[in-house]
Amino acid sequence: MTDPLLDIQALQVRYRTPRGVLTAVDGVDLRVQAGETVALIGESGCGKTSLGKAVLRLMAPTSGRILFQGVDLAALPPRRLKPLRRDLQMIFQDPLAALDPRHAALRIVQAPLALHGTPRAQRTARAQALFEQVGLPWSLRERLPHQLSGGQRQRLNIARALATSPRLVVCDEPVSALDVTLQTQVLALLRTLQDTLGVAYLFISHDISVVEALADRIAVMYLGRIVEVLPAGQLWQAAAHPYTRLLLASVPGRDPGARRLPQQAAPAIELPSPYALPQGCRFQSRCPQATGLCRREDPALSPLRPGQEVACHHAATPSALRPIPVRILTQADPCPTPKLSIAV
């Protein structure tokens, strides 16, 4: 296999808050190949967006390495980082908040080109080509963001991200603010652009049905850690980590034959806090398979079968196939239960 486009190694991101030190990302290893889509899924508050922003150096990592085309972004000063930003872009969740309300659509798309020294004469031609690629009428070029529809704003957001012909785009919940019809259109657009341009996506989402439609591989994140990585096409058949299977059990309208889930809820529990991470496996308090080993030792992300890695002491045992109870969570912690829905 060729060297990955992006190679994240032992990445850690911590924040200081009035409540103490919050560990958002803790020892994450993840790779993205050129032209690949890796989806990062998990509950709100698990560290997905912090990981995405750290990859782009929109926030400083506490420790670890972020190798992009062999260059460690985590170790670069801002002066040396700027030239690489042509190849690293982000599509934000809320396009209205991400777009400058004072600038017309044309100026928004031209802005990254100007920052990277594209001659003025070439900017308009490049912007016009981008408008066509993302399906925006050229007649909208002088419109302000608030004068565009939600779908048009997100297409403009995508056009701006692609202006410098990046090799990697971090997509942070890019369709969550759109209705189902627009979600389908934007996902199809992202796939078409990837096929045409060869761009790689790190696609952040809480919606399993959305990432199934786009991803090549899926990485599942829980409380700052990657707990499972597997091919997207094997998600429903081969998911082995209890947390991944709990997420699948939360998706309405899906009932795989191999997944006989009980209808009765288990007793309420309290979620672990990112301010005081538990010893051992972080999922132990929610896992019906937890043993003394789980409470003592934190499992490493290890190969289970070709293309699949799991951080679970019991992933390879027959007990891992037992049904997963749906637990009712308390509100003691700010991390809510999964908000999953069929979107496409």
TrEMBL record:
Residues of the ABC transporter domain: 8-248
Keyword DNA-binding: no
BP GO terms, sorted: peptide transport; transmembrane transport
Family, as annotated: Belongs to the ABC transporter superfamily.
Family matches, as CDD domains: ABC_NikE_OppD_transporters
PANTHER family, alphabetized: D,D-DIPEPTIDE TRANSPORT ATP-BINDING PROTEIN DDPF-RELATED, TRANSPORT ATP-BINDING PROTEIN
Name the UniProt record assigns to this protein: Oligopeptide transport ATP-binding protein OppF (TC 3.A.1.5.1)
Pfam families xref list: ABC_tran, oligo_HPY
PROSITE patterns tied to this protein: ABC_TRANSPORTER_1 (PS00211), ABC_TRANSPORTER_2 (PS50893)
UniProt keyword terms in alphabetical order: ATP-binding, Nucleotide-binding, Transport
Organism of provenance: plant metagenome
GO MF terms held by the record: ATP binding; ATP hydrolysis activity
